[in-house]
Amino acid sequence: MPTSRPAETAHPRQAPILITMGEPGGVGPELAVKAYHALNGRVGRHPLRLVGDPEVFLHCGQVATSALLDSGTAPAGRQPGQAIPENAASVAAAIRCAVTESLAGRAAGLVTGPIHKQAMQDGGFGFPGHTEYLAALTQAPRAVMMLAGPQLRVVPLTVHIPLAEVPAQITPANIRVTARIVLDALAQDFGIATPRLAVAGLNPHAGEGGHIGQEDETQIRPAVLALRKDGLDVRGPLPADTLFHDEARAQYDAALCMYHDQALIPIKTLHFWEAVNVTLGLPIVRTSPDHGTALDLAGSDRADVRSLLAAIAMAARFADTRMDRLG
Questions:
Q1: How far apart are alpha carbons 194 and 200 in whole angstroms?
Q2: What is the structure's pLDDT at 12?
Q3: CA–CA separation, 74 vs 57, rounded Å?
Q4: Looking at residue 326, what is its pLDDT?
Q5: How far apart are CA 225 and CA 207, in angstroms?
Q6: What is residue 4's predicted lDDT score, i.e. its pLDDT?
């Protein structure tokens, strides 16, 4: 099938939102087709385009040729429920194609389908996941992962590393840089004029003044004080066990957590079907559903499309917010 590229738009406000196929053997392609039909092919002013191998999408349902963007690298094979390393090049090509379109201004935002990290790495993919690959493709100095739901936004300072390696990554510089990226995104994309950031402690009870570990006092608190000195609304370190109840969440717009599960357990508990993965710090808009490839559901038509629909809506909203700020 010949490559179908998004037409040059007369105005970026009508540029398409791109959805990559993700792992061909997972639920990503079928959810992309399902979302396309649920939204009648567009979100707000933006048409939807599905990026990857057209045949993968067409095996999941009928889609107009004009809605398909061929990334030029077909999978070695596709069997729903199986993720094979040989497909890593095809999965990466879809992401790379969508980023190229976005950087060129031919797309308003990018929504990535879930990838199978083990199969990707076994197939020679040299990155831990989407976030790191997108940072490399866009030459962003630093990319930050946020999980956002209707009532909670969380950012893990450290992501896919062993828990034993977390303390060494908790430094004042790391916290300060990450916090500024989060605060900038809350203003730029979420439209919050005066964003508030809560910073979780690492140790139980945020270290109890150094009686339960030293990191909260020697690493986290100095970073928070430096950010506050610059006039930013940042509080912490705060005990993580009391940071996520209703009254606490009303006091901040996002929580910066110290490690993966400290951030993801509360967001998945509150918003398992609604949370969206957002990459902050990029020159392009990127969101993703907050779930994996769900190989056990692939091909069954039982995969839930709600998280992908939320990711599409958020990408469109961010794109429009950025355009509004530019006038």
A1: 20
A2: 66
A3: 12
A4: 66
A5: 17
A6: 46
pLDDT band at 138 (very low <50, low <70, confident <90, very high): very high
- Note down the domain range covering 73: 1-141+285-327
Residue 150 DSSP class: S
The owner of tokens 């499309």 is: 305
Residue 28 lies in a domain: yes
pLDDT at residue 259, rounded to an integer: 97
Interatomic CA distance for residues 327 and 193, integer angstroms: 16
Q: 62 with 157, same domain? A: no
Dist CA 301 CA 113 (whole Å): 16
Closest by Cα among 150, 181, 180, 146 to 257: 146
Mean pLDDT over 212-234 rounds to 97
pLDDT at residue 7, as a whole number:
43
Is 280 within the bounds of a domain? Answer: no
Nearest CA among 309, 1, 285 for reference residue 146: 285
Q: What's the CA gap between 134 and 279, in Å, rounded?
A: 9
